[in-house]
Amino acid sequence: MYFDRFKRGFRHIPLLGYLGNTTLRSHGSALTEIFVSFMVSMMPLYISWIVLRIKQDTNNLSVWTLFQNGELFIYASAILAPVFYIAQKERSSLKSFPSRIAFMTVVFGVTVISTSIFTFERIESQVLPDNIIKLSFGIFLFATATLYLALVYNNTFLPNPATEMQKQDVDFAEDVRQHRG
């Protein structure tokens, strides 16, 4: 009773409101999707770090070196592209994606802010100050959390195609059995 009341009250919080309706399986699937996606998409960063370590022959190369030019701002914008698609996708089992407007606002805001900072940095052609690099980490983490939530909701509210096909097969077989009488 109290949990249901809490869920209803929690539902009004943008982005987080429908977490009470999700499953652990949806969370696990979202984490797997993010891990695999980041392993591939972030490859230029960690390969660059390895190459720089070898080339500079030092063990003191900081990870900060990789982000001095604002790369995380671009990555933050790029990882939000699927959020835009997921939030706009029509679903037969759901009126609309949970917090659709909030997700779209986050995508737009992070993209504009990140692209602006990255562009200004490129115009100046200088290494970013530490506080801006920290800001890029913060924006990137926020974008990652937004992607995670969108994937969790997508996995929860959008039916699994394999499960849907199996259900259709079972329904078809049942219809055939009833028809044959």
Helical percent range? over 70%
Biggest sheet record: none
What structural category characterises the helix and strand content?
A: mainly alpha
CA distance, first residue to last residue: 46 Å
Mean pLDDT: 79
Q: Helical segment tally?
A: 8
- Secondary-structure element series: HHHHHHHH
| Share of residues in strands | under 5%
Extract low-pLDDT stretches.
none
Shape: elongated
C-alpha Rg (nearest Å): 22 Å
Got a strand count?
A: 0
Task: Walk me through what this model shows.
The protein is mainly α. The protein has 8 helices and no strands. Helix 2 packs across helix 7. The chain is elongated and about 80 Å long. The chain starts with a helix and ends with a helix. 21% of the residues are buried. The model has no long low-confidence stretch (mean pLDDT 79).
Key attributes of the depicted protein:
181 residues, mainly alpha, 8 helices, 72% helix
What is the element layout, followed by pairings?
Blueprint: H1 2-10, H2 24-41, H3 43-56, H4 71-79, H5 81-88, H6 100-124, H7 130-157, H8 161-180
Helix pairs in contact: 2-7, 4-6, 4-7, 5-6, 5-7, 6-7
